[in-house]
């Protein structure tokens, strides 16, 4: 019985040491991945990296991690030449294969979401006055949540030199085109006073698109939905290059 107790105590101690070593190793790996991702994407600070699954060391020996969660705040991307900021990008990476020195890492699959504020999305709209009819100009002055996944577009109009007292509000739908572009399309066009405006000219104001480039290689936009704090975009990807 004494020998059995000694064996049991030894196993418990060794198990505790293994768990401690495992947690130290996973913390080191998370820091390495975060630093590499920061350098690869030109981030101002390290992203949040969480390597899931236990034990970690056996995953290391296999050269592939089961799941890695990544959170990035304030990521800069391009929108067809100019810059824009993605407020939040959260991604769940699956099957992350990496090199022994952590210099490269690639995920076989990825899912997640990104949020773009209305102020950032507004950069793609017509914020300068555009003539939509003789004596009538219009411009987009604001974007906000329109409810039910829609975007509310506020259009300021000037008719024959007189600015309308209140912006005209347009409820618009948003969708993703080609995995990189957010398109905003008015469900119904507004009337600007009593002056008739051709639909094609009016849509030059109400309809616009935002190209989102600069995401980690392999990640694409999937779906978009308007929310109170901006548009939430679902992202998916395969063979996503995290570093290297």
Sequence-ordered SSE layout with sheet pairings:
Layout: H1 2-41, E1 48-52, H2 56-62, E2 64-79, E3 82-98, E4 105-116, H3 118-122, E5 130-133, E6 136-147, E7 150-159, E8 162-163, E9 168-177, E10 181-186, H4 199-206, E11 208-211, E12 219-227, E13 230-243
Antiparallel strand pairs: 1-2, 2-3, 3-4, 4-13, 5-6, 6-7, 7-8, 7-9, 9-10, 10-11, 12-13
Protein name: DUF2993 domain-containing protein
InterPro entries: DUF2993 (IPR021373)
Pfam families: LmeA
Description:
The longest helix is centred in the first third of the chain and has 40 residues, at 2-41. This protein is α+β, with helices and mostly antiparallel strands. It folds into two domains: 2-115, no CATH class; 120-211, no CATH class. It contains four helices and 13 strands.
Determine the structural class based on helices, strands and strand pairing: alpha+beta
What sort of overall outline do the alpha carbons produce when their principal axes are compared? elongated
Q: What radius of gyration results from the CA coordinates?
A: 25 Å
Estimate what percentage of residues fall within beta strands.
Answer: over 45%
| SSE string, helices as H and strands as E | HEHEEEHEEEEEEHEEE
According to DSSP, the number of beta strands is 13
Model regions low in confidence, pLDDT < 50 over at least 5 residues? none
